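Hey, quick one: can you model this chain's 3D structure?
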Amino acid sequence: METEDELWHWQLKKRVYKDCPARGFVYVWEGPVRITHWVNVISIIILILTGLYIHYPFVRPNPVDAPYMMGTTRYIHYVTGIIFAASIMVRIWWAFVGNKYAHIKTFYNPFNKKRPCIYHLISEILLLP
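Sure thing. Here's the predicted structure for all 129 residues.
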């Protein structure tokens, strides 16, 4: 037979686990947000590496082995830039058609009059002489 303390502890434990939001799967960020995020990360890394090589060619290959290495690097840089721009456009589009977490209404607006403290502070800063 269980004591009253053990029974109370078991009921509390059952209630806490039942109401715990981490118990279920919460799908906040949709697929397009996740995909555009990782496309942006990979694009920025490639753009940085190819941009550095275009500005400072740290590898000088033999013209016989790689006759057009700088052109290939510039082409990769160009295509990656187009992919990055397309990813940004998809994310902007998804800000209007996505769920409530990805929607443009959830982005922080410092000029929102519903937050008078922040609105007043920013308006004072912008109107200083």
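One thing worth noting: The two ends are 78 Å apart (CA to CA).
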